[in-house]
Amino acid sequence: MTDYKIIGVFKHWNVFDSIPEGWVIDRNAGSPLHGHVFITNGKNILSGEQIRVLAPAPREKQPPLTPVNLQDICPQFFPEPQPEAEKPNRQIDEECRRVLNDLARKKVQEKLLQDIIFDMNVCKLEGWDHREYLFELENLIDRLIIDSLKEERESGQ
Hints:
The chain is α+β, with helices and mostly antiparallel strands and about 160 residues long. The protein is about 40% helix and about 15% strand. The chain has 2 domains: about 5-55, no CATH class; about 95-155.
Protein backbone atom coordinates (compact mmCIF):
# COMPACT_ATOMS: atom_id res chain seq x y z
CA MET A 1 0.00 0.00 0.00
CA THR A 2 1.26 3.49 -0.81
CA ASP A 3 1.76 6.16 1.83
CA TYR A 4 1.06 9.01 -0.59
CA LYS A 5 -1.68 10.19 -2.88
CA ILE A 6 -1.39 11.99 -6.22
CA ILE A 7 -3.35 15.19 -5.69
CA GLY A 8 -2.80 16.74 -9.10
CA VAL A 9 -0.51 17.54 -11.97
CA PHE A 10 1.49 20.74 -12.37
CA LYS A 11 2.69 21.24 -15.94
CA HIS A 12 3.74 17.60 -16.58
CA TRP A 13 4.80 16.74 -13.01
CA ASN A 14 2.63 14.65 -10.68
CA VAL A 15 2.05 16.31 -7.31
CA PHE A 16 1.98 14.08 -4.23
CA ASP A 17 0.24 15.02 -0.99
CA SER A 18 3.33 14.13 1.10
CA ILE A 19 6.86 12.76 0.80
CA PRO A 20 6.63 8.95 0.77
CA GLU A 21 8.91 6.74 2.86
CA GLY A 22 12.22 6.11 1.05
CA TRP A 23 11.89 9.12 -1.25
CA VAL A 24 14.38 11.99 -1.02
CA ILE A 25 14.27 15.69 -1.75
CA ASP A 26 16.22 16.56 -4.89
CA ARG A 27 18.28 19.56 -3.78
CA ASN A 28 19.72 20.01 -7.30
CA ALA A 29 16.51 21.22 -8.89
CA GLY A 30 14.47 24.28 -8.01
CA SER A 31 10.72 23.81 -7.88
CA PRO A 32 8.42 25.56 -10.35
CA LEU A 33 5.56 25.36 -7.81
CA HIS A 34 5.61 27.58 -4.72
CA GLY A 35 5.77 25.68 -1.44
CA HIS A 36 6.77 22.41 -3.12
CA VAL A 37 10.02 20.56 -3.79
CA PHE A 38 11.10 17.95 -6.29
CA ILE A 39 11.42 14.49 -4.77
CA THR A 40 12.83 11.30 -6.29
CA ASN A 41 12.52 7.62 -5.53
CA GLY A 42 16.27 7.48 -4.83
CA LYS A 43 17.17 5.54 -7.99
CA ASN A 44 19.99 6.58 -10.28
CA ILE A 45 18.92 8.90 -13.09
CA LEU A 46 21.30 7.16 -15.51
CA SER A 47 19.61 3.79 -15.00
CA GLY A 48 16.30 5.29 -16.18
CA GLU A 49 14.50 4.07 -13.05
CA GLN A 50 14.38 7.43 -11.30
CA ILE A 51 10.94 8.91 -10.79
CA ARG A 52 10.69 12.63 -10.11
CA VAL A 53 7.54 14.32 -8.74
CA LEU A 54 6.54 17.37 -6.71
CA ALA A 55 5.54 17.25 -3.03
CA PRO A 56 4.86 19.89 -0.38
CA ALA A 57 8.08 21.23 1.12
CA PRO A 58 8.60 20.04 4.69
CA ARG A 59 8.03 22.81 7.19
CA GLU A 60 10.75 23.57 9.67
CA LYS A 61 9.57 23.68 13.24
CA GLN A 62 9.94 27.15 14.69
CA PRO A 63 10.68 27.57 18.36
CA PRO A 64 7.83 29.25 20.21
CA LEU A 65 8.22 33.00 20.48
CA THR A 66 8.55 34.48 23.92
CA PRO A 67 7.40 38.03 24.53
CA VAL A 68 10.20 40.49 25.19
CA ASN A 69 9.94 43.83 26.97
CA LEU A 70 12.29 46.20 25.15
CA GLN A 71 12.37 48.59 28.11
CA ASP A 72 14.01 45.88 30.21
CA ILE A 73 16.65 45.13 27.56
CA CYS A 74 17.69 48.68 26.64
CA PRO A 75 16.21 51.24 29.02
CA GLN A 76 18.45 54.02 27.65
CA PHE A 77 16.18 54.25 24.60
CA PHE A 78 13.07 54.79 26.72
CA PRO A 79 13.43 58.03 28.65
CA GLU A 80 11.03 58.91 31.41
CA PRO A 81 7.93 60.58 30.00
CA GLN A 82 7.88 64.32 30.55
CA PRO A 83 4.64 66.05 31.46
CA GLU A 84 3.22 67.73 28.40
CA ALA A 85 2.99 71.48 28.40
CA GLU A 86 -0.45 72.81 27.76
CA LYS A 87 -0.84 73.57 24.07
CA PRO A 88 -2.74 76.62 22.95
CA ASN A 89 -6.06 75.90 21.28
CA ARG A 90 -5.56 76.91 17.66
CA GLN A 91 -8.45 77.28 15.31
CA ILE A 92 -7.79 76.75 11.62
CA ASP A 93 -9.79 79.21 9.59
CA GLU A 94 -11.90 78.42 6.53
CA GLU A 95 -9.36 79.77 4.03
CA CYS A 96 -6.55 77.59 5.42
CA ARG A 97 -8.75 74.47 5.26
CA ARG A 98 -9.70 75.31 1.66
CA VAL A 99 -6.06 75.76 0.62
CA LEU A 100 -5.04 72.46 2.25
CA ASN A 101 -7.91 70.65 0.55
CA ASP A 102 -6.98 72.17 -2.83
CA LEU A 103 -3.37 71.03 -2.39
CA ALA A 104 -4.49 67.52 -1.50
CA ARG A 105 -6.74 67.42 -4.57
CA LYS A 106 -3.90 68.57 -6.83
CA LYS A 107 -1.69 65.82 -5.44
CA VAL A 108 -4.35 63.17 -6.13
CA GLN A 109 -4.91 64.56 -9.64
CA GLU A 110 -1.17 64.37 -10.32
CA LYS A 111 -1.03 60.72 -9.21
CA LEU A 112 -4.12 59.89 -11.25
CA LEU A 113 -2.59 61.54 -14.32
CA GLN A 114 0.63 59.56 -13.84
CA ASP A 115 -1.39 56.34 -13.64
CA ILE A 116 -3.32 57.20 -16.80
CA ILE A 117 -0.13 58.06 -18.73
CA PHE A 118 1.50 54.83 -17.57
CA ASP A 119 -1.53 52.80 -18.66
CA MET A 120 -1.58 54.55 -22.05
CA ASN A 121 2.12 53.75 -22.59
CA VAL A 122 1.56 50.07 -21.71
CA CYS A 123 -1.39 49.93 -24.10
CA LYS A 124 0.67 51.49 -26.90
CA LEU A 125 3.50 48.98 -26.33
CA GLU A 126 1.05 46.06 -26.33
CA GLY A 127 -0.89 47.37 -29.33
CA TRP A 128 -4.12 47.80 -27.36
CA ASP A 129 -6.62 50.65 -27.58
CA HIS A 130 -5.33 53.18 -25.06
CA ARG A 131 -8.63 55.09 -25.10
CA GLU A 132 -10.53 52.20 -23.49
CA TYR A 133 -9.26 53.07 -19.98
CA LEU A 134 -10.02 56.76 -20.55
CA PHE A 135 -13.59 55.92 -21.55
CA GLU A 136 -13.98 53.74 -18.44
CA LEU A 137 -12.80 56.63 -16.26
CA GLU A 138 -15.12 59.02 -18.07
CA ASN A 139 -18.09 56.70 -17.48
CA LEU A 140 -17.14 56.38 -13.81
CA ILE A 141 -16.98 60.16 -13.37
CA ASP A 142 -20.26 60.64 -15.26
CA ARG A 143 -21.90 58.09 -12.94
CA LEU A 144 -20.64 60.01 -9.89
CA ILE A 145 -22.07 63.27 -11.27
CA ILE A 146 -25.45 61.66 -11.99
CA ASP A 147 -25.62 60.13 -8.51
CA SER A 148 -24.66 63.47 -6.97
CA LEU A 149 -27.40 65.28 -8.88
CA LYS A 150 -29.97 62.66 -7.79
CA GLU A 151 -28.96 63.14 -4.15
CA GLU A 152 -29.31 66.93 -4.48
CA ARG A 153 -32.78 66.58 -5.97
CA GLU A 154 -33.90 64.13 -3.30
CA SER A 155 -32.58 66.29 -0.45
CA GLY A 156 -34.18 69.41 -1.98
CA GLN A 157 -37.66 67.89 -1.97
